[in-house]
Design goal:
By secondary structure, the protein is an alpha+beta fold. It is built from 14 helices and 27 strands.
Amino acid sequence: MAIEWDRIGQPEFDRRVEALLYRMFDGSSGRVTAVNGRGGDKGIDVEVSTDRGLGIFQLKYYPDGFPGSLKGRRASIKNSFKTAMQHQPVEWTLVVPATLTPSERRFLGKLAEGYQVVVGVMDRPALDNGFADFPNLEATFTRDHLREAARDFNQEQALLYDGDDLVERVRRLGERADTVHEDWTWDFERRGDEVTRTLRALHPQAAQRSPITISMASRPDAMDDQLTAAINRTWGFGIAEEVTLPPEALERLTIRGPEFIAGHITDATLTWRPVIPAVPPGVDAEISFRTADDVVTARHTGRLTSVGAGALGTSIEIDVHGAVLQMMLPFNADTDATIRYNYDLDGREPGEAARVLRIQQRLLQGGGVHVTIDGTPAGSGTLPATGTPEDLRHIQQMLLYFADLDVVQRHCEAFFPAPLTYTGRERIELRVARLLIEGKCVSYPFARSLSFTLNGRDSEQVRALFEDRTQCVRIVPPGFEISLGEHQLDLGPVSLFHVQLRIEGREAALAALDAGQGAGQQITLRPENGECFRLYLEGVPDEHTPLAVTPLLLDGLQEPR
């Protein structure tokens, strides 16, 4: 059903034409701006900026045109045109809801004389054709004629014939939803008894033409500290974080905007996530930690991922080593900035995991922090020390674990993500392995005795072993393998030794040798005073370096003797 141009009046005429121009120039071909004033604002009703330059549309509600007998109308058009020429447009278009006569077209043609501008007209046929290209927009302005819609609704109550019938009816229902408003529409989805509606803009400038605002009244007594902090981050600083407010915490939600969406909502679950403008890819970011004397103690580089803003201040989000560093900067200069650090160590190789964890360690320790974006200072301040001694001790032990594993992986050329859970034995063996690789001698807590089986051969060397004194023994197994979860790491040959060993069952073994029955006789070598055997990695320590035992320094472990 066509729009009855001669009956709608000036305000509705302007509204329809503006909506049509927003659809015709959808953001890719030009940017549309409707100017308040209706001719009283420097000769512009609607301006369109395109690659070719500025275009001006002048709206005149003359349903019966502007014949020569109505000289006042022609004078008004001419004045609007001359005023618009101050903006040096490349195109000027008169919009009128009438079919022009040859005389009226000649009048418009003469306006361009002396100007570098193309003069055009959008008359009633052009308007009708324009709305025909956007039938949903035309239907938006003819919704009072509900006969067809009512017929469609009755059809929805009928039996469906097949899947194609369902698709077609849903499509037609969607077309009806597109006629609710000239700037906004509903997309919808059904899952079981639940119907989800999603508001969608029909053109890029819908929010400017028909703004929608939301205000919320919550029940503070129904919100915990975690939910309150999340609301503060998203609404206060514009951080792109999804927050859900349960029905018991939502007292009232007020929506202001077009009539079809405006209202008050209660007893609902509210979920929101701020939409953050995309930042250019590859923007460098850096966080550095500093002493009170402004000496840099650590520096970590990353990339900028988002910049947001809210009611309380702005926010910066940085991807550093694959973790997320959020900095919230209040508008109030007397309020401290806040840094929030979200990270996950799972799936990271030890070197990367250590870098991520060191930032957390620095943040908990407090002190000066400085953030730059593309080399430009973005924020700085002094963080309080918030880490407890237990927190810092745990982080330090985790950093030691990652460092140990990194050294062992590089030595063995076996690389895999650092397991975040391990047994006590696995942790001790990993620490031992790292110290061996670094040329240290260690006391190995899992070797407190060695058992041998004699083969029956007798010699002076064998007899010397059974003398009634402490012995010095060194053996070199072909390899030294440790386990960490499903992974096996072989360090290569090690020397296992001790200089004060006693043989258990010495007399029985000697008697067996004397009787020629030494074969199969088992003997056990055990260090004196309950000590452990010592280890060092073959070929690593300097020959002239004393083999002094290096402590393991593991939290909660009594050093083995």
